[in-house]
Amino acid sequence: MRGRGALVFALLGWLGCQSPAAEDEAVRGHVPPERFGLGAPASAEEIAAWDIDVMPNGEGLPDGGGTAVEGKPIYRARCASCHGAEGHGGPFDQLVGRLNGDSFPFGNDPSAPKTIGNYWPWATTIFDYTRRAMPLDSPGSLSDDEVYAVTAYLLFMNGLFREDRVLDRNSLPGIVMPARGRFYEDDRRGGAEVR
Ligand code: HEC
To answer: Which atom of ligand 1 is nearest to the CA of 151?
Structure first.
């Protein structure tokens, strides 16, 4: 009786010590390789293709440019069905519209439509957002020149940029949006990344 109890105890102890990896090894009878050799290091070119963010101060804007005149047909063909021919009245977000005296009623009236012209503090965000996310049905399909042109057209429709002026990495960061002074910068990292 005593002997059998000790044997059961010993067996339980042995089972408890077996880690899953050790069990695997015991089952398959070999040690797994240190590296599995899957994947490959990303090339500088591959990383650059994903690294397309544009900062509020324009850092990261690519070469190229375009005017609102060039942007109008692109907007009509690629954006108007969702955002309306004039940037409002479409099934999705209103993009165009200023409020009287550039007032900012959103704190009291959350239902007021937020547009590029009355709410966005940085013009550079239009380029960044459009390039990465729009048109919704085929993001990334516009060339940089086309994104500049359509951004120029959106700014023009909001009364913030001349129709024939070239929007590019020099002119875009200089546009002061009506809502610029309505936001507080999150300065916990010194504000360096937004200036
Ligand atoms: C198939 C419909 C569709 C098309 C086409 C489309 N959009 Fe949009 N767009 C949307 C939707 C839906 C949203 C809201 C996305 C969200 O909130 O995540 C949006 C949001 C936006 C916003 C942000 C609005 C805001 O104030 O938050 C901008 C700017 C914008 N689109 C620009 C464009 C431009 C420029 C084009 C054409 C190049 C375009 N969109 C084409 C559906 C579309």
So the answer is: 35
Do 142 and 104 touch, CB atoms closer than 8 A?
no
Measured from the CB, is residue 132 less than 6 Å from ligand 1?
A: no
Atom of ligand 1 nearest to the CA of 135: 41
pLDDT (tens place) for every residue of the chain, 195 residues total: 445 555 454 444 444 445 666 666 666 677 888 888 899 999 999 998 889 999 999 999 999 999 999 999 999 999 999 999 999 999 999 999 999 999 999 989 989 999 999 999 999 999 999 999 999 999 999 999 999 999 999 999 999 999 999 999 999 999 999 999 999 888 887 655 444
The span from the CA of 75 to the CA of 155, in Å, is 12
Ligand 1 neighbourhood includes 77 CB (under 6 angstroms): no
- In short, whether 155's Cβ falls inside 6 Å of ligand 1 is no
The answer to whether residues 123 and 155 touch, using CB atoms and an 8 Å cutoff, is yes
**How many angstroms does the Cα of residue 87 sit away from the middle of ligand 1?**
10
| Among 132, 139, 88, 141, residue whose Cα is nearest residue 114 | 88
Task: State the distance between the two ends of the chain, measured CA to CA, in whole angstroms.
Answer: 82
Integer Cα distance of 65 and 172 in angstroms: 10
- Ligand 1 geometric centre to CA of 26 (Å): 56
Cα 138 to Cα 105: distance, rounded to the nearest angstrom: 34
